[in-house]
Structure formats: C-alpha cells, structure tokens
Amino acid sequence: MPAPTSAAGTREAQQDVPVRRPRRSWRPSPYWWYLLPGGIGFAAIIGVPFVLNIWYSLHRWKGGNAPKRFVGLENYQNLMQDEQFWLSFQNSVSMIVAMVIVPTLIGLVLAAVLFDYVGKHFGSRTASFLRATYYLPQILPVSVAGILWNWVLNSQTGAVNEILRGLGVDSPPNWLGDPGTAMPSVMLVLIWMQIGYPTVIFMSALQRVDPELYEAAELDGAGWWRRFRAITLPQIKPETFVVSLTCTIAALKVFAPIYVLTRGGPEASTLVPSYYSFLNFFDKSKVGYGSAIATVLTVVIIVVALVIQLFQNLSAKREEEGR
Amino acid sequence: MATVTTAPRTATPTASPGRTKRRTRTVGQWVVLAVTVIVGVLMLAPFVIMLLNAFKSPADYSANGPLTLPESLYFDGLGTFWERVGFETKLWNSVWTSALVALFAVVVSLLNAYALGVGRVRGRLWIVALFLLANMLPQEMLVYPLFTMMQSIGLNNSPWSIVLIFTVIQAAFGTYLLASVLGSFPPALLEAAALDGAGRWRMLWSIVYPVVRPTMSVLLIFFFIWTWNEFFIPLVMLTTNDTQTVPIALASLQGDRMLDVPTLNAGTLVSLVPTLVFFLLFQRTLTRGVTAGAVK
C-alpha cells in the first residue's frame, strides 16, 4: 500500500506563519485527545493480544483454566521439525498462484479489453455491466460462496459430477475429496473469487490514463497488443503493486475458503498456516503451538510486505532516474 | 492520494458520447465481446445453478439432475432451512453488529485521522504505519488472546465482542485512508475558521467533516459489508445458535447429513440475498470504494 506522503508542502507553509521561537520544553499537541478513543481500542484489541500471543507461544498450554508451563522456544523448535507446518507453507505458494498471479494476469487482460476495446466499441455501459458481473463473487460472504462450490463440486450430489455422469463419464473424480484433485479444485474456486478485484482496480486505474496516448498510438498504427504493452502496462504499474501486495497478504492469511471447502484435507493436501494454527487452538488444544504458528505467519507476512514495498520503491526510483 | 471524492470521474469511463453507435463493428470486435461475455457467464454459472435447484423437490433433483428447470416450485427447502437455523435471529445479528461496527469505526477513523492529518501530531507517520500493519495482521495472531479476554469480561459468545473487535480492526484501515485524505486538507479553510474563533472540536465538525463526508460514506458501506462477511473471528467467538451471524449459520449446516440439496441451495440463496441487494444498491459506490485505497 502506498505510504501516505503527508503533503510536505503544506507543512513548510505552516511553519512560516508562527515566528520561530527557541525550542523550549515540548508540549503535547492538543490533537492527541482525538487519538484517545482509537488508541485505547487499538491497545486493547490489537496491541495487548499481539503481545499475549507471543507470550502464549512460549508456553505449553491446553487453554482455558489448564496450567501454563513456560517452555521457552520449544514450540518453535518443534515447528521446524513439523512436516505439516512446512507443508502448510508450501500450500501457501499454491494460494499465491491462485489468488495473486493468475487473477492479476487475467484481471490485467480483462480490464484492458473492457476499457480499451469493449468500452470503445460497445459503449461504456456494456463494459461496466461486465465489470459488475466479474466483481460479484467478491462481495459475497466467503463462506456462502464456499458452501455453494462445495455442493457444485460434491462427488455424489454435486452439479459438476451430475453433468459429467450425464455425458457418460462413469466415475467422475471426487474433486475435493481426493488428495490429487483437492488443491487444483480449491485453486479454481479461489481464482473465481478473486478475479473481480484486480479487474475493478485496473479499470479505474486506466481512467486516469490520458486517452490521447491511446489515440496517438492508434493513429500510428499500433495494434491492441502493442498498446497494451507500451501504454497500459507501464501506466498502471502502481496499481499492479498495490494489487500484488494486498492479494499476497490475503493469500498468506486465507482461512474461510479452506474451512468451508476442505478443512485442510484430504491428507493435509490443502492445509494452510492459518487453518493449521486454528486446528491447534481449538481442535488439538495446543494453544502454545498454535500461537507459535500464528507468530511465524505474522513474521512471514510482514517480511513479504516489506520486500514488495521495497521492490516498489526501487522500481519507482529507477523510473524517476530513467527520465 | 486516495481519490474517493471524485465521484463524477468514474461515471465517464470513455469520453466522446454518441460516437460508439455509428461505427460499424467488425467480426473481430464481436468475437472479443463474446469472450468477455463468456467469462461473465462462467462467473455467474454457480449462481444460476444454485437458483435452478433452490426450488426443486428432492425427488425432482434426484430424477432430473441439477441442470433442468424445476418441475414445480417447491418452497419446503426454504422453509426447512429457515426454521432449522432460525434465520431471522441470524439475520438480525448480522445486521445490527455490522451496522454498529460501520458507524463506530467511521467515527473513530475520523477522530484518528483528524489528529494525524490535520493535527499533525508527532510521529504520525509511525502511527499510520502501525495502523496499517494492524490491518495486515492475520487474525490468528489475535484470536486466542481475544477469546480469553472476552471470556474474562463476560462477552464470550456475545455479538458485542464482534462489535468491539471489528470496530478497532476496521478503524485501523479507515484511519490510514482518511489520514491520507486529510493530510492534504486545504489549510486556508482551517485558518479562516480559526480566525472566526472556531475551536478544534468545532472545526472538526463544521469544516473537516462536511468535506470528507463522501469518503466516509464509502467507508461506512465498506465496513458494513466487510463485517457482514467476516468469518474467522465470529466462528470462534459465537458458539451458540442464538448469537451466530448468517455466514456462520450457513457453514455450521455443512456437516448436517440430513440436509438435502434443495435445502442447501435455498439456504445459500437466502444467505446471499442481503449482500446481493446491498450490491445492487451500492454497486457504484462499491467499485469506487475498492479503488479508494489503491489509486494514488
């Protein structure tokens, strides 16, 4: 997400107004009062739990009133040898493919086609109607969409297999129940859910591109593909970064689709870190272990976010120097 | 800067009105349109299949499969679902928690953003970064401590826990967004108000608030829908039937072996109707809102 560049200009202008006095003792800004409600809520709902979670991760604890035993880093050491833990992060890579890479690529093409092609030849209403269609899965509660797909893909009563049987396939695959097909099926559902988000963002990004750029390129005889590569892609680079950042974080955190579609199964083939920590918290009563997983996941997310942000800053810098 | 306030711009994606009609369209153009329409159909297909089967009788479904029109309209599935989950309770839980969260979170965001964007308190960049970080956190990181904390203050299994938790989580995002809008607030307006003797509180409500109201209404709608869709924390916090929200109620039906396909489909249908209505009402605001955080 873009760092809020706090309008440096206005700040300098403001400093000119009061006469500069020698610095005396620092007095708190009266605006601090306005941060009070938000600050207290933040401390209570995010700050304290954050610290507590780390504290829990250093204990062996069954939860509730059971005794807590301090074990230091033992939970983390165990994690390093836990195959399921590593598997869950491997599956995160599949989540990134399904929620970031594929939707962003499809979204880029769809947005460019809708904006620069359908919008021009068939009217902007057609384009925005199609955009709304693509966006629909995004606003549904994930669990509702998940239940729907769970039925569509169900091996016995599901729509897909009923259709396949109607076409003469004797034993259609058990999409979500077979370790071989579960992950690809989940990935397809996630792609379906995700496509709308990049499409909408990219379409709105294209609105700030000067239409004369396109017109000039068209007059010069540049085909659609040329225009896409030479104008569309570079122009909406900032949004591409934002989409990849937010979607990568979402992919690392993904929980609800897994919970409703497969519960991490079969044979842990769709296990993800967040579901694995949930499992330890509430099914296996290994609270300390679950907290350790959550802490590692948080660290991974922060590192990934920083790396993407760094990459964006570098690329923006390079662009500036290039001019 | 976030450009949520530029409403008219989004309404005119392609300029030059009237030009589109007179052009002759080539075959290639129709093919491209067809492809985009097919993508649209694929996106809608699960909904259509669900609609086809929500009003079928179980016998009809097992005889004719999922792709036929229902022989006759069958509302028992809907009735069964409604009664089994006590749908009106769930609906009401979802409505009031989401509405309160949206309202509280927008107010808290405005107060925070006023101090950060207009007040320019010390260390504001760090504070905004902290809020942003909080919004990125996986909820697993917070859930167990929150669970025990809510238990100790007697709010376990109470929808009020959802209100408290999500007010803070949504306000973290709202603060980030509004602070960046208010960071570029025209100082001339504020100076004029100060000359007229307005205090900070007065300034907030009669100068700043009217200017950022459009942004705030987008945030309000977003907070409502995000909270409505929340799954993980409500799943953990709300353990009994009378406290659950719509998404949790539907998910908890999943293991139910008694459930036939039409009932499941009817349940899915009524569970998405509220969001669907909301979507149709606020389609434009929503699409504007998604881009709010992204467009600089």
Automatic annotation (TrEMBL), chain A:
InterPro entries: ABC_transporter_permease (IPR051393), MetI-like (IPR000515), MetI-like_sf (IPR035906)
Subcellular location(s) per record: Cell membrane
Gene3D superfamilies, alphabetized: MetI-like
Domain annotation ABC transmembrane type-1: ranges: 89-308
Cellular component, GO, one term: plasma membrane
One Pfam family it belongs to: BPD_transp_1
Region (Disordered): 1-24
Keyword set, alphabetical order: Cell membrane, Membrane, Transmembrane, Transmembrane helix, Transport
Positions of transmembrane segments: 31-56, 93-115, 135-152, 182-206, 241-261, 287-308
UniProt superkingdom: Bacteria
Protein topology in the membrane: Multi-pass membrane protein
Gene Ontology BP annotations: transmembrane transport
Family (UniProt): Belongs to the binding-protein-dependent transport system permease family.
PANTHER family: ABC TRANSPORTER PERMEASE PROTEIN, LACTOSE TRANSPORT SYSTEM PERMEASE PROTEIN LACF
Designated name of the protein: Raffinose/stachyose/melibiose transport system permease protein
From TrEMBL, chain B:
InterPro entries cross-referenced by the UniProt entry: MetI-like, MetI-like_sf
Positions of the UniProt region annotated as Disordered: 1-22
Name the UniProt record assigns to this protein: Raffinose/stachyose/melibiose transport system permease protein
Keyword Flavoprotein: no
SUPFAM superfamilies, alphabetized: MetI-like
Family per record: Belongs to the binding-protein-dependent transport system permease family.
Record's compositionally biased regions (Low complexity): 1-18
Gene Ontology biological process terms from the UniProt entry: transmembrane transport
Domain of life of the native organism: Bacteria
Protein topology in the membrane: Multi-pass membrane protein
Originating species: Flavimobilis soli
Record-annotated ABC transmembrane type-1 domain positions: 91-282
Transmembrane segments: 30-52, 95-118, 125-147, 159-182, 203-228, 263-282
